[in-house]
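Hi Y.,

Following your request, here is the sequence exactly as I used it, all 252 residues.
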Amino acid sequence: MAAATDETYLSRIMSILDAFRAEEDAVGVAELARRTGLPKSTVHRIALSLVEARLLERHGSGVRLGLRLFELGQRVPRQRALRDAALPYMSDLREATRQTVHLAVLEGSEVVYVEILASPGGPPLPSRVGGRLPAHATGVGKAILAFSPPEVSRAVLDGELPRLSTRSTVAPGLLARELAVIRKEGVAYDHEESGQGVVCAASPVLGPGGEVLGALSVSGWSNRMPLRHVAPAVHTAALALSRTLGGDGRAP
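Below is the corresponding structure, written out as tokens. Let me know if you'd prefer a different format.
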């Protein structure tokens, strides 16, 4: 019974933390209760505990995510090692293409953006550092899925494929065929599938055993960025990063 109670309390904490949105400065307890479906008294009690632990901090009449969460995030080994190794290549890629560069990893059926180097004049993007998007609707996600073990890509193909735009591929058969082409060519494309007016070219980053660690991408306006011109630069950067991390850029 105690274990179940602990799990319930932890799930409530995660529900409250997940309720915060990137664009918000602070959220009131009543609004958090509405978003989580938890009683206001429960949210108030848990929020006080999280403030004491510095996971939340008071701001005006509400609360916001605390600096300690950022500090903990910087200690995640996979994120830190991959990001540190990728930054020089991302910087060179942005300089060469004059476009926004992403680094992302896969978690479940979604990609998590580890780092983004924005380019002035680029389109407004749905991505943000620490944010998530469905893998099947992004260039980085498709690049990772194409080089993932079959059971990983199959779980995504068999699951829900939400539509982010009118051009999102939501038919499992079409997506499976696209992943096969990506695995052969080493480059994935997003043709306004994650957002209107935005295109992207992405390539996987592979580790020592050929396992996929993440993906690099370049994103820009659909009417300004020629995908076939930037694709070789993205592919080259991903290969170079793979070799830095001990791989040779080849899948098993």
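The chain has a mean pLDDT of 90.

Thanks again,
Q.
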